Amino acid sequence: MATINTNMAANIASNAMTRNERSMSATMERLSTGLRINSAKDDAAGLAISSKMTSQIRGLNQAVRNANDAISMIQVGEGALKEATNMLQRMRELAIQASSDSNTANDRTALNNEFTQLRDELSRVNANTEWNGTAIFSQTGTSSTAKTFQVGANASQTVDVTFKNFDAGSSTTDAATGSVFHNLDTNGSSSTSEVSNFDMETDAKATAITAVNFSDGTTTIQLASSDLTSVDTMAKLVTAVQAKITASPNFAFNAAIGTGGDDHILIFTAKTGGDVASVTASGITGSGTSSLNQTAVAHVDGTGAKDINNIDITSRANADEAMFAMSDAIDQVNSQRALLGASMSRLEYASDNLQNVAQNTAAARSRVLDADYASETTELARTQIIQQAATAMLAQANQSQQSVLALLRSS
Length: 411
Known about the structure:
This protein is of the alpha+beta class. The protein has helices spanning 8-33, 44-98, 105-128, 234-247, 316-369, 373-400, 403-410; strands spanning 130-131, 134-135, 144-150, 158-164, 184-185, 194-201, 211-215, 220-223, 253-260, 263-270, 280-285, 305-306.
């Protein structure tokens, strides 16, 4: 049927051109951006998958930088300990020199001056070794501190590195309780001492006790009423005290439970070995506590243990002690350096692994997200040819209406 108002051939060609132009436009966009998925309409599921992969890749790359920063931080600490080792070696050398009676009292005093200056420098190094404005080594009475490094793309993917306390005190200040220079071996046979016989007798009821305090001289462990709600015997009281002390990272001593006759005994050992300073108890309040033997806190001297700040080389005997102590101190520093070295090695492997995971995840994302240029250029050629053909057909369809004029002329 010959019609003028409706040209079906032109409509068909026009619709075909519209669809082809849409396909060609998408192909050109992919070739222009290099991406197969440029919006959610291209591939909704693929967009979600590639977005999650992007989060992982960026997180992994940041984790690599974190691991490298951690290695740098540890290197700073290890470098400081290298100098600490050099100082301790020199202090031991001075002790050996002072141990010989070829030195006069004045000579030993001069040697001791250098000895004490090096000790003070150990404390300064401990306090002032920093990374990015943060002290690396543990301070005050804390024996160690753990630095946590994020080395993964997700939460809790961390590595902890322990940095010990290397406070050496001074002529007027004792070394920190948790320092590795606290209670150094001065005769080659030091052992962990105990504070024993803190007796809590079973015949004393604990139902009326409202508070208990234990102190190591720096940190006080407090058991308040809320900690004693389930305590009705001395056995439970000792257990509660032991649990509270164990949970404290800053208390200088470990607490264990022993027995002696009808008594329940707390046995304290130094966390860093050597001598245990006196442990005191106070604040044990409430009725029914008359049988609680608070006076049996025994201070057992460790075998040949002294803080580094109490060591000098002003006499032959003291110099002999210093030789043992410096050897012990060097061992303590070497132990930390070995730990830091192992941590650096671990973090290097972690960094390498993160880079491998990031690389493989990027490859997986590419297969989902990136445009295949061979396929897309073929598609572009196809759509361009079809566009040209559709344009020609639309022109033909429009021209076909001219035949109606021939009918009009003949009439």
